[in-house]
Each structure stands twice: as structure tokens, then as C-alpha cells.
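Annex B, item 7. Sequence and C-alpha cells for protein A, then protein B.
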Amino acid sequence: MTISDRKEVTRVEFKKNSERFDIWKFKELCIYEKASDLMVEESKFKGRPINVLDIGCGNMLPLVWFWKSNRTKKSTVLKNYIGVDIDESLSPPVQSDEINIRIINKDFAESSQLSFDDGYFDLVICNQFIEHISKVAQVSLLSEIRRVTAMEGLLYLTTLNGGIKPMKEYHIYEPPLLEMLELLKRNWRVSNYGMTIDMRNVKKAMDKYSDLELTSIHEYRAILSKFGGNMRRIILSTLFPEFSDNVVYMCRRIK
């Protein structure tokens, strides 16, 4: 895929996400609200405004969510919010005199190198991006993310779980859960959980873990009766990341 092809795919995806952005849509509930919460939590953890890097930022939806839904004085949470994206036409969706908000144009398929000092960022967000570059480029990018993340800094990474569904035609490599865990655990303390799951895979998961109390038929029926389709996919995927289409990796840098 050429640079121009990647840019076109990116623009189409971002346009689609922008047009359908809604505070109650389940994907935003899973990804952008959590990323927004992490900004506040990490700021409290550090005791100061933090530096945030958003890889493959698109329209900076975690920042948009934070801006719209959080009543906290923004400059007490954020010092810098830097987005990096292949699309040179993008511009920050919000402006602030007190916070440095900007977007840097970059193609990670060409080079993973970032022009920031070691340990500069307290929080790195990488939402549904890494599957758009090759396996080799993913390893290189994660190494560079580690370099620019502070010790005990946080990486919030979401991506597809390779092999659960056929790979999308505009993706380059969708890393399987166990492979990504092995790579991340070299330098990060990792917790992971599913983000969405196909209901057909719930049955497979329940068959495999039938001895667990949480997968009892009673619990399963309670979830089905209480929640609609999208919320079911979120709740059940949390129990079974191995079978989920999308996975969240929460990574605290330890070395």
C-alpha cells in the first residue's frame, strides 16, 4: 500500500468516525471515554498537568471527549497534547491558550522515530492504529513509544485481536492477543481485557471456561436479559479477551 493509499484510507475512516461521533455510541464508550478518564487519573497520580501523545490521532477524539464531558479546569490536567498522524490536512479540534495542542504529520510505515526526549510523555494513547502498519513496524513503534514514555508512565493501546475475524483489507497486520502480550511484557506491566466480542465467540468462550462461576448459564442469561446487543458485546468481552475481536492493553512502563 502506497503512502497516498494509506492517507486515503485514513481520511475515509476519520470522516466516518467524525460523522457518527455520539457520546453514547458503544465504540466511543469503550475507547474515547476511557482514554479521557486516564488523562485525569494520570494527572492526579503525577500531581501535575501531564504530557499526552496520541499516535494515529485522527480527529483527537479522546481530547474531544475530555473537552466536552469533563468539568475540570483543562489546564490542571493537561500541559501538552500532541497528536501524530499521516493526514497533513488535520488540525486540532479544540484550542487553548494554556495547553499546547498540536498535530505532527508523520507516516509510521516509513519510520517510527519520534522527535521527543526520552521519557517525555506521561500517557501515550494508541487507538486502533497499530494494525495499519507491518509487524516489523509495530515492533519498532512500540520500542519508540517505550523510549518517549516516562518510567511508570502509561500506554493505552487498543487494536484488533488477529485471527478472530478475517483481516480487513486496509489493515497490514492484526496482532494476535498472545503475541502482543509477549511483546509488551518485555518492558511494561500489562493488564488486558476485551473491548467487543462477537456473540458467536461467547459460546466458544463459555465452552472453554465452563467451570468459571462468571460463565454460568445463570450469569449469561442475566446479561442477555438486562442489556442490548452492543452492551452485551462489551460486558462479555471483558470476561474473555482471548475470544474478543478488539483488545485493550493497559501498560505501565517498568524498564
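Protein B:
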Amino acid sequence: MRKRSLSSSIAKSQSKALLHAQLREHGLKLTHQRELIAEIFLCQDHITVEELYHEVAKKDPSIGIITVYRTLKLLCQWELAQERHFGKGKTIYDNVAWKAHHDHLICTHCGRIIEFENFQIEKFQEQVARDHEFHITFHKLELYGLCKACRRDDARPSRRSEHA
């Protein structure tokens, strides 16, 4: 779970405004539960349902995990969140409320997720599609490997090899 770099007060006010606008647009009620869940989610980059539930429970233990699931489903429908499956079988929700299109580097050892944008990769994908007379409606690029910290840890000799 990585928190966004926006200052807390700015993120909270933007999150509330965004949530209120979406609820009004879709004719739904603003509840304390939805507001709290969305406020916490919209201050994150990537988070699982369980991680979000634990953060929400710290502020209001009466909110159940089903309410968290339902609210995340709404945020996905409103294109404020994207459900992602980065290997290891668990679903991670990507906060895309204020982000442009981006791709991901995923560490297969520690699970770290690094977002990046690369104009040349985007142009290359468009060219490949044109070459094959293919119309892209959406895409995602996920590159799996080892982050800098895990590569550094792998390069250290193990205790067993030191004593061999």
C-alpha cells in the first residue's frame, strides 16, 4: 500500500468533491461509510480490499468489509479505481482518479508496484496496431521482475555460502 504524495488536506478536499460529484451524477446518497471509504482510498495509489478495510476500521470499526467491496465496485464503475491482478492472485485496486494513462513495473519478490509513463512505448504500440490494421480500445502494460532493493538483496552473499 502506497499513499499518494498529495498533502493530506488537499487530497481529502479533492476526494470529497470528487465523491460528491459522482454520487450526485448517479443519484446515490452520500453516506458516512461511502465518504470514509472513498476518502481513504483516494489518498492511496494501490491497495487491496483487506488493506483498505483495515485502514477504514481504524477510523470506524462498525464498517464491514462488504461495504468496502461495494464502495470499491462503485469507484471502479465511475472509473476512479481500476481492479488489477498483478500476479500473486490478489486483487489490487489502482487509484486512477487523477492519473493519466500509466503502466506498471511489478517486483515479483516484494510486490512493489512502480508506475511509469513512456510516450515512446505508447507510440510504438499505436504503430504496431496500425501495421496490423488493429484498433486498440484499451491496453495495459505490466512488466515483472526485481526492483532495485530486491536485486541488491539478491546480490548479497548468503550466510551459508560465506561459511562454505
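Comment on protein B: The first strand starts at residue 2 and ends at 3.
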